[in-house]
Design brief:
globular; 2 domains; nine-stranded mixed sheet; FAD/NAD(P)-binding domain; alpha/beta; five-stranded parallel sheet
Length: about 500
């Protein structure tokens, strides 16, 4: 293990563009900046000591993608691994290989957290206050781009479970998975029904995990979630990669999967009753138990009101059929020394309880942008083209899709930022910010009914109801329109605040 100080590399006093976050998005942003804006200097600031973001943070058993890697991977670097639904370590290595291959890692400064960011309209510069190596320092940049996602890496959502201190076993949250956790031969209860829970249950009953095999795993859910079995390998992609050059095959597979994903989403949203019938029929066919499907796999909401959970090769269903795991739909009355007492009166005995109860949202990695020393109220702003924001000049954010691979929208945002930077140079504008040309009807930025979204979304900026102010969940339309948008229509030069005061 390296003992090199991650803060050893010096910080420049100024760069043209600062990217916040060295995860999947930040590395993609670095590639686009150095290929499409070669005259712009850039730096990637990462608060942790290593790259990878989500794929380095989460270490729980079986952690994997919930989108196919041909679309979650980068457009410019073909995914060559056999599995289309990949495990976390493989994705992390893919990110590291990309950064190394294109020299992006040389632009990263680790252990560097953005404490505050203040834009001066007089100087058209961001001043960033950074925490690094236990001390605070500052640097400036012309453009600030947040690729830190919208999850809180330092905190997580913890429901207030009655009696949890009375539990004699161990309570674990997936975001802080202990490296030395030994659950072999133990009884485990996983609380939750989202992507993390449906990943953990079959993984903890598998002999392939290094930590051994749990004696029994119970997935305890308050209400069912839409879950769909998907192939772990894409056989059509395998055939194409065997018969075509890698780059050509990658483009075809990527286009195929984008089209299929878009079609499934549109079908679910436009014909929810038919979609329910299809999904329930597939689950019933795998499990062979209509009552189990009715009790535990039939949600009250429509498909894609919340993100659809994918289980590769139906591994969750196979664990249930073998009896290695069970699913219980009930609510918690309280924890007891031996486990969890349910509202029904049943006690789920447990040695380990995993609280896969959701994440906590955090806007822009915790950055609260200021303009001329005044904090911008994020909840009063609107997002333009899913990237830039009213009220904050020379600032962009990367927000991925909720119904498709995150990277699809992320790459569009990277390219849009590069287009804006080039347009600013061409026009001689030192600073711009989007401004609507009509009143906007506000909508939540993330239009999902999921609990983790609803708990925090009011702290985020809004989206509008149409045009470039609508954060669409449709990559096909976005790919046709985003790079063709008329920048002059909504991006306006920023007038220095001190000039306005003098003029008044």
């Amino acid at each position: 293990m390296s003992t090199v100080d991650p803060t050893a590399l010096p910080l420049p006093q100024h760069v043209d563009v600062v990217v916040v976050g060295a995860g999947l998005s930040g590395i993609g942003a670095g590639y686009r900046l150095q290929t499409e804006c070669p005259d712009q200097s850039y730096l990637i600031l990462e608060s942790r000591d290593t790259m990878g973001g989500t794929w380095d943070l989460f270490r729980y058993p079986g952690v994997r993608s919930d989108s196919d890697m041909f679309t979650l991977g980068y457009q410019f670097k073909p995914w060559r691994d056999a599995k289309s639904i990949a495990d976390g370590p493989t994705i992390l290595q893919y990110i590291r290989d990309t950064a190394d291959e294109f020299g992006i890692d040389e632009h990263i400064r680790y252990g560097t957290r953005v404490v505050s960011a203040d834009f001066s309209t007089a100087d058209s510069l961001w001043t960033l206050t950074l925490a690094r190596g236990g001390v605070e320092t500052t640097m400036t940049c012309g453009f600030l781009y947040s690729c830190a996602g919208y999850y809180d890496y330092d905190d997580t959502y913890r429901p207030d479970f009655p009696g949890i201190d009375d539990f004699a076993g161990q309570v674990v949250h997936p975001q802080y998975w202990p490296e030395d956790l030994d659950y072999a031969g133990k009884r485990v209860v996983v609380i939750g029904s989202g992507a993390t829970a449906v990943t953990l249950v079959p993984s903890m009953t598998s002999d392939s995990e290094q930590s051994g095999r749990a004696e029994h795993v119970t997935m305890l859910q308050r209400s069912p979630t839409w879950i769909s079995a998907v192939p772990s390998r894409d056989t059509k992609a395998d055939w194409l990669r065997d018969h075509l050059p890698a780059d050509v095959a990658h483009r075809i597979v990527r286009a195929k999967n984008i089209a299929f994903g878009t079609a499934v989403y549109q079908f679910c949203r436009r014909r929810p009753q038919q979609a329910r019938k299809v999904l329930l029929g597939m689950t019933t066919k795998i499990l062979g138990d209509e009552q189990m499907v009715a009790d535990h796999f039939t949600p009250s909401y429509d498909p894609w009101d919340q993100r659809l959970c994918a289980v590769p090769s139906g591994d969750l269903f196979k664990s249930l059929k073998k009896g290695d795991a069970e699913i219980v739909t009930d609510t918690i009355e309280s924890f007891v020394p031996d486990g969890i007492r349910l509202t029904s009166g049943r006690v789920l005995e447990a040695d380990v309880v995993v609280t896969a109860t959701g994440l906590k949202l955090l806007a822009f990695g915790g950055i609260k942008p200021q303009v001329d020393g005044e904090t911008v109220p994020l909840s009063e702003q609107f997002v333009w083209q899913g990237a830039m924001m009213t009220g904050v000049p020379n600032f962009a954010v990367c927000i991925g899709y909720t119904n498709a691979s995150w990277t699809l929208r992320a790459d569009l945002s990277h390219r849009l930022v590069c287009k804006v930077l080039g347009w600013m140079d061409e026009k001689g504008y030192p600073a711009v910010a989007p401004s609507p040309d009509r009143p906007l009807t506000e909508r939540p930025l993330l239009d999902l009914a999921a609990g983790y979204v609803q708990r925090s979304i009011d702290a985020f900026p809004r989206q509008g109801d149409s045009g470039p102010w609508r954060v669409r969940q449709n990559y096909v339309l976005d790919s046709l329109t985003t790079m063709r948008t008329d920048l002059a229509r909504t991006l306006k030069p920023v007038t220095p605040a001190r000039s306005e005061k003098v003029a008044s």
